[in-house]
Amino acid sequence: MAFGGENAESYHDEGLTAMMKGDLTRAVQFFTRAIQLDESYLAAFHQLGRCHLRLGQAQRAVEILTQVLSHKPDLIPARLDLAHASLMLGYVDAAQDQFKEVLTAQPDNWRANLGLAQVCFHKGKWDNAVTLAKAARAQGGANFATLFLLGRAARLAGNHVLAEDSLKAAETLIEKSVELSPDTPEGHYLRGEVSLAQERISAALEHFRAAEDRADAKRYYTAFGENFTRLDIMAKRALCLQRLGSVEGARELGKQIVAANPHHQAGRTLANL
Predict the structure, then answer these.
(1) Full-model pTM
(2) Element spanning 73, H or E
(3) Quick one: CA torsion of 9, 11, 17, 19, rounded to 10 degrees?
(4) DSSP per residue over 143-193, as a string?
(5) Helix 144-157 and helix 160-180: axis angle, to 10°?
(6) Section 41-67 average pLDDT
């Protein structure tokens, strides 16, 4: 029974608490129970979809979020989540349509512009991705997610000054985050991602190792739009080892990942190097 009693609202609140703690499996159980008690509880459906998205179960997330939007098509957060789930599945055009719908309703929605920038990034349209990421920065400020994408897109578009400035700004934000919470993995992981984008592989390896040392094998982490687990951190560390020429070390890490989760795609690729 939920702490607040056997009712949908209490299970919904318990689910939100579990999500905040990174216990997504338990959060799914709570939201599912809330829906069983009240099948019209759209907020619980939405959060259940978000859980599946963070768990990497994008197809299930699409199914649930589509159902939510069929009842409440003006629910912008759910539409943004549906767009990101579609992007995760490789349904790039479907994701683009969802982000455009958000912009039709809210022309200044920076998350939608950043989403369209991600769509362009996936399509290899680097210049368009830069333009849209700049728009997102103007609307939503110089946050990490925007600066990180802008830096990567600018590098691929050949604008190395913008790339360097954006990635450096992203790194500065994450350094402050690490200073505030040095014992949590999120900041260290994102520092690794920035270093990897900057092609500072040895530094990235160090940051990913710091993140791995602080990560709980049973938790799911999210920060600035990035979702990851301890196994994902290990895969990033293995990628760094591969880039540094240590193929055997990368392969061994891949085998460890597959032993823990046989379905981990990056782990399987690394194990077969």
Answers:
(1) 0.89
(2) none
(3) -110
(4) -HHHHHHHHHHHHHHT-HHHHHHHHHHHHHHHHHHHHH-TTSHHHHHHHHH
(5) 150
(6) 93
Q: In angstroms, what is the C-alpha Rg of the chain?
A: 19
Q: Say what the pLDDT of residue 218 is.
A: 86
Burial 92-111 (b: 16+ CB within 10 A, else e): bebbbebbebbbeeeeebbb
Q: Nearest 10 degrees: CA dihedral of 59, 68, 75, 105?
A: 70
- The sign one gets for the Cα dihedral 94, 59, 188, 259 is negative
**CA-based nearest residue to 123, from 80, 83, 93, 82:** 93
Percent of the chain at pLDDT exceeding 70: 98
> Tokens 């399509």 correspond to what residue?
123
- Give per-residue pLDDT as tens, 124-142: 999 999 999 999 999 999 9
CA 237 to CA 262: how far, in whole Å? 18
pLDDT score of 206 more than 80: yes
DSSP string over 108-145: T-HHHHHHHHHHHHHHT-HHHHHHHHHHHHHHH-S-HH
Conformation bin of residue 46: beta by default, left when phi > 0, alpha when psi is -120 to 50:
alpha
